[in-house]
């Protein structure tokens, strides 16, 4: 493996690339997303790395399917309050099933019936093409919409002003559980006659529907930390791997589109390529939002239930972080989802590298302040070093 001192990255160059990318307004499945994909292909081409764009169908939002499900849950609650138990039970059951199916790695059938657009995945292969082992490094080049639910004052109020001890939490809030509870409460009311359950279900449904509508009305944020950092990381990895190629491992640099609409690009990549990638000899390293003050390696993630990352994959990344003297925040899980969730659920050895603030959250998450000047470039360069170390170590010996 290369000495870490020989694989340093120029922070000014990183910031310049990140500034170019962040200037592109690139919501999921949009022309801006396509422009960002073309930008990445051009940057890789300047290094001598050939990349291609795979175009896939995608809906491009999460607020429409979740908003529809929330509204249906609210209407089911109102039906229960009016004594229409059969309607409440039927509508609530359908809404609950549709919502549960929307969260990765679900089939997401509801959005398939909504208007579709195109999303753009960038794929770049380096190293021996016939190698028996493959490492896939995953980023995403689309950017999220903002919304009041992401306001940075919310965690600041909880943990600083209200003085709730942050050390009590190693898992992010389960923000989607109350959404699913809306139609479930309507069904419960239909079965038991509880008017309180119906009222709470209707209130939750209307609240979530309003929140989804508000997110949909906002513009995409610059997305420098989330996830421009990982896109630029792919460019840096290409530079290093072209300078010193791997000996026995093929490396796929993958930047997906439509990650912010519940990993539609990653799901499409899996449908296209998982059949070609052997589970015993393919390692996925997902890199998402690595410009906050401290890196962390997720222990698990999932919207409704927790999918735990495999111990061998975690041990590899943890050990390399220790060898490189890179500090990481231990034992964090995400009640949300990154692109790592798709290969993880498909049975691949997978690890996801992220970063957090002292409040155990990504800096400037889905907020207009997610700009290049607010990225921690020290953490960013550590992420590049660690990602390359994973590739080099797996090239030397497999898990």
List the helices and strands and how they pair.
Blueprint: H1 11-22, H2 31-47, E1 51-58, H3 63-81, H4 85-102, H5 109-112, E2 117-126, E3 133-140, H6 153-161, H7 177-192, H8 195-217, H9 224-243, E4 249-256, H10 264-273, E5 282-287, E6 294-297, E7 300-301, E8 307-308, H11 311-323, E9 328-329, E10 333-334, H12 341-345, E11 350-356, H13 377-396
Parallel strand pairs: 3-4, 3-5, 5-11, 6-9, 7-10
Antiparallel strand pairs: 1-2, 2-4, 6-11, 7-8
Helix pairs in contact: 1-9, 2-9, 3-4, 3-7, 3-8, 4-7, 7-8, 9-13
Provide a compact summary of the structure.
The protein is of the alpha/beta class and 399 residues long. The chain contains 13 helices and 11 strands.
Number of domains: 2
Q: Strand-residue fraction?
A: 5-15%
CATH fold-level name of the largest domain: Aminopeptidase
Cα shape: globular
Strands, count: 11
CATH class categorisation of the largest domain: Alpha Beta
CATH architectural group of the largest domain: 3-Layer(aba) Sandwich
Q: What's the CATH H-level superfamily name of the largest domain?
A: Zn peptidases
